[in-house]
Amino acid sequence: MDKQKKISLIYNIFSPTAPIDNFEFFVGRFGQLNNIRDTIEERGQHAVMYGGRGVGKTSIANVLPALFENLLISKVTCNRTDDFRSIWNKVIGKIHFVSSSKKIGFSAEEEKRIRELRLPNKKHIDANDILEVFYDVPNYSLVIIDEFDSIDDKLTKKMMADTLKTFSDNNPYATILIIGVSENVNNLIGHHPSLERCVKQIHVPLMNITDSASLIARGMKFVDLTIEDSVVDKIVEYASGFPHYIHLLCKYTAIYAVEDDVDNVVNEHFDYAVAESIKNSSHSLREAYNKAVASSKEKNKFEDVIFASILADEQGDMKFSPEDVVKNYNEITNQKLKKESIYYNLGMLCKLERGVILKKIGSAKNRKYQFSNPLMKAFVKLKLHKNK
Question: Which pTM does this prediction carry?
Answer without folding.
Answer: 0.83
